[in-house]
Amino acid sequence: MNTIKQIAGLHFFKFLFSACMIFSLIACDFEYDLPEEGSIEDLTPPEANFTASQSDTNFLTYSFANFSGSATTYAWDFGDGNTASTRDAVNTYPDEGTYTVSLTASDALGKTDTFTAEITIVEPPVPTAITPEIGAAEFQDAAGICGTGDSRDCWRISGGSIHQTTSDGRNGTRGAKFTTASSNSPRVSYQAVTVSANTKYILTAYYAIQSDGDSVRATVIDGQLDNFSEFANAPQLGQTAGTTNDGKGNFNRVIVEFETGANGEISILFDSGANASESYLDDVSIIPAE
User: Is there a single domain that holds both residue 76 and residue 151?
Assistant: First the structure.
């Protein structure tokens, strides 16, 4: 009898053990080491690649665009002692020269690939500054000039009375004449020009006055005007008044040295203010400063 009980108990234990094994297999959570995004196990190892582009504002600074495939981590060596671990990178080099840049791309399985390239850094030449062409700079009338043949049409601005022209210009040629303040509203000569940004220039013109206390004023404006009424509040790059009275026909030089800002759009304006006598202007030029 005891033997039968022992056999029955053994069978029951085997049943319980088998059930537990089956239950364990069903309930077991299987965990996998899945490759991180961008990395494919055993099929696609990483491939490192990048391109480099020079900054428009600082020739020593380069941006590096990462085109690596199947990689999750990156190690940059810029060849000047600087390193980075970001996907894309920016580096500013200490000086001109040739540098070997390397990028090592790795995946989650520890596989790596390295791509190297040389970049040669040379300071770009300073571009030649624009020398603006001033329409009717000598105030000479000619066929086709300013589209009409009338030199004054190069110098007009809405809201302002244009200068007169005269045969009493410098060296016996034609020039501009500003009438006295009492005879008419103040005469002005205005022209918009384009120059190089962030560049030093020299505006030169020749003037003649006939009374002490009179003047011819030269102004360089930062920007371009639509109406003379804007002149009073316009930002200026420079202004000089010629006040030497050597009489009619005896011209002196007025100079305005100025530096342009980020905008190369400027304008020049000449006026005589409240002069007691007629005054004259001729031979206007703008050249880059050496």
Answer: no
